[in-house]
Amino acid sequence: MAIRMRVFVDEQKVPADEERDAYDLTARHFLALAEGAAAGTARVIFPNGPELAKITRVAVLARQRGSGIGAALLRHIMHVIPTLCFTLDSQLHAMSFYETLGFTARGEVFYEAGMPHRVMSKTKLSES
Asked: Is residue 51 a contact partner of residue 83, using CB atoms and an 8 Å limit?
């Protein structure tokens, strides 16, 4: 939660009461470490059942951005979550990051916490 507060509340000025929500109690939370210290986080929720995993609250500390921590975190999530379809709501400035991981944008721009977003999704390829 400390990483999310620093990134979303302190840096992006998201109100703290919007950053925390009821999903925090039931989500599967992930933590990325760099040299033994917390560097990034994300959570996965299943709003429509187990067939669709929604990755939310992806945050990497400023000093670790560009180091590959965020990409490694998302690859790990997509590897360990037993579902075929992933979705997320990307801030527009982060879309190219998610595209490098195979996500594609769909739908129109919408605003969340005052920032423009687009829905992005990815389907896992079956492994033989």
From this structure: yes
- The tens digit of pLDDT for each residue in 27-83 reads 999 999 999 999 999 999 998 888 899 999 999 999 999 899 999 999 999 999 988
Domain ranges of the chain: 2-123
Q: CB burial class (10 A; 0-12, 13-18, 19+) of residue 127? A: exposed
Give all strands (DSSP E) within the chain, no chain letters: 28-34, 37-45, 52-60, 85-91, 104-112, 115-123
How far apart, in whole angstroms, are the C-alpha atoms of residue 126 and residue 66?
29
Nearest CA to 73 out of 51, 44, 96 is that of 44
The CATH architecture annotation of domain 2-123 reads 3-Layer(aba) Sandwich (3.40)
**Is the CB of residue 111 less than 8 Å from the CB of residue 117?**
yes
Tell me the pLDDT tens digit for each residue of 105-119.
999 999 998 899 999
Quote the pTM value.
0.91
**Which residue is it, tokens 């879309």?**
95
